[in-house]
Amino acid sequence: MTYVPVLKQQYLKDVLPELTKTMGYKNHLQVPTILKIVLNSGIPASSEKGHVEEVADQIAKISGQKPVITKARKSISNFKLRQDMPVGVKVTLRGKEMWEFLFKLNAVALPNTRDFRGISPNSFDGNGNYTLGVQTITIFPEITTEGTKKDIGLDITIVTSAKTNEEGLALLKLVGMPFRISKKTAETKSE
């Protein structure tokens, strides 16, 4: 028997039938799913030499995969940026690694954020994909604060097969993303 991540089991058992029923899909292949998760961290051009390797090492610890170092395509003198200079680190998660990372993000990392009240439901791109910015990666259990020199920020993009923001929001809510309840929604529920 092959291992199936807990969140994928929940998706197959609970989310798929629920979305089929509430959204009125006729076929289970119409139900949106999560395709991939992209982790991206920008690096300032004025950073020290070892900073790129430190960021790449930290992202590798979080994701469980070796990240790709992105480089500048052209020189921009105002930003002290030269062509082929490292400007970021990114990694794309699919399959089991994607489901495991999303579970860790929902269950451990986001609740570990100071004064956490939920994530904004307004960060969709119009096509059902969601982007979340994390100010410091020390919210992940793999990262210790004593080894890092600077706070490393992270952008997390969840790419879905949803065609609209409403479908993407419904999918991510059922998967367990802790969205903040807006004042309009709270007032509607209380009436």
Written account of the structure:
The protein is an alpha+beta fold and 191 residues long. The chain has a single domain (6-178), classed as 2-Layer Sandwich (50s Ribosomal Protein L5, Chain: A), CATH 3.30.1440.10. 34% of the residues lie in helices and 17% in strands. The chain is built from 5 helices and 5 strands. It has helices at residues 6-23, 51-63, 95-109, 165-175, 183-190, and strands at 34-42, 68-71, 86-93, 130-134, 154-160. Strands 2-3-1-5-4 form a 5-stranded antiparallel β-sheet. The longest helix is centred in the first third of the chain and has 18 residues, at 6-23.
- The first-level CATH class is given as Alpha Beta
**Bulk shape:** elongated
Number of strands: 5
Structural class category: alpha+beta
Largest sheet: 5 strands, antiparallel
The CATH architecture would be 2-Layer Sandwich
Strand line-up of the largest beta sheet: 2-3-1-5-4
Q: Spell the H/E element sequence.
A: HEHEEHEEHH
CATH topology-level name: 50s Ribosomal Protein L5, Chain: A
Number of domains: 1
Number of helices: 5
Q: What is the CATH H-level superfamily? A: Ribosomal protein L5
**Helix share bin:** 25-40%
Report, as a whole number of angstroms, the end-to-end distance.
Answer: 49 Å
Low-confidence stretches are none
Nearest-angstrom radius of gyration?
19 Å
Mean pLDDT score, rounded?
82
Question: Per DSSP, what share of the residues sits in E-state strands of 2 or more residues?
Answer: 15-25%
